Amino acid sequence: MDWIQILKQQADWSKTNSSEYRLSPEQAIELYDNAPLHQLMAAAMARRKSMHPEGNVTYLIDRNINYTNVCTINCQFCSFYRPPNHPETYTQTFEEISARIVELEEIGGSRILMQGGVNPELPIKWYQDLISSLVINHPTIDLDCFSPIEIEGIAEVSGLTTLEVLKKFQSVGMHGLPGGGAEMLVESVRNDVSPKKGLPKNWLRVMQEAQSLGLTTSATNVFGFGEGAIERVEHMLRLRELQDQSLQQYKIGFTSFIAWPVQLEVNSFGRRNKGQNKFELGAGSSEYLRHVAVSRLFLDNIENIQSSWPTMGVAVAQMALLGGANDVGSTMMEENVVSASGTTKLSASEEELQDVIFRAGFKPMRRDSDYNLLPTSILTAEVSSMKAPTPIQ
Ligand code: SF4
Q1: Using CA atoms, how far apart are residues 266 and 344, in angstroms rounded to an integer?
Q2: Is residue 224 domain-resident?
């Protein structure tokens, strides 16, 4: 089937006949490689409207906290980490972390996303005490902490299984896990750029364990390592398969899918890209928009597709809202991991996010980490005086 026939067929998709119209990997690859961008985005927009007919675009008031930069994993695309004993290593104290959360509370935030390196110097008790103290001092803030590779590192240091670590953290108040560290869930790509991170099945197993406990999880995807549509769709397929399984078994799965191209400015992976090289690394705006659109059509069991302003810029993130995305992520307040490899915009105000959403023709809605809608005040006179978003309804 060529892309014309596939898009024609996809136009008949609805929530009730979803399984009949599920895209096969081969069809997704055909769309990725051959469908014109504007037609692909229009199909993703139609799908987004079927899944979210109310016309909202959501955002989260939150803060990223990168509590330690000590890491033993040595991913080639990472400029954030420092190996143990390096003079530039840091681990924040509980007081420093708490002070950051106070700043978040002052702007009405509801969640922290806390992740760092795989730091063998921190015993499991440090993490348990940290979560306990944050729960006591910041009871209204959801704590989404530690990506699967950190959970694996903590399990190794403490001699426990990853499931046991997750249970311990949940029992002291952890709300969920960030989706970080998935990058490409394809063996050949992973072995090339982060061989010490382990197989894709490890990331998927930790996420499945978290979902079995009812913890909140999201799925990420960094692309542009020289792979093609086949590998990109394989990544999405693995997420879709786990999502089917978790929704059936645990009635909970990934809240969202968030993709961005690898940043190449200041890391050893980026240096490979220089000179007479073999691969075109990273991804520009149109490739990013294509990726978002394919993900919306392919991931029919993941409700929320996020656009990425920190890596693509606000304007492209806004375009992604017209090609499948229904969420603009969060304010972040700070970010140190991706930004260490070259991004420059590290935070966005609520007003700015509302403006981006309104100008794309949607209604801005605050949400929490679980995508429950929260009361939302429209912050600028200019935005609140705009007419209801008619162009795309
Ligand atoms: S991406 Fe994460 S796991 Fe990899 S080196 Fe950086 S901090 Fe460590």
Answers
A1: 12
A2: yes
Q: Give pLDDT tens digits for 166-178.
A: 999 999 999 999 9
Q: How many domains does the chain have?
A: 1
Torsions phi, psi of 390, nearest 5? -90, -30
Whether the Cβ atoms of residue 328 and residue 309 lie closer than 8 Å to each other: yes
**Ligand 1 mean position to 25 CA, how many Å?**
29
Domain-located, residue 390: no
Q: What is the pLDDT of residues 303-340, one digit of tens each?
A: 999 998 888 989 999 999 999 999 999 987 766 665 66
Q: Give distance in angstroms: CA of 117 to centre of ligand 1.
A: 5
Atom of ligand 1 nearest to the CA of 78: 6
Cβ–ligand 1 contact at 80 (below 6 Å): yes
- Do the beta carbons of residue 159 and residue 125 sit within 8 Å? no
Ligand 1 centre from 231 Cα, in Å? 21
Q: Which runs of E-coded beta strand occur in 207-291? A: 217-223, 254-261
Q: Any idea what the CATH number is for the domain that residue 215 is in?
A: 3.20.20.70
Q: How far apart are the C-alpha atoms of 240 and 303, rounded to whole Å?
A: 11
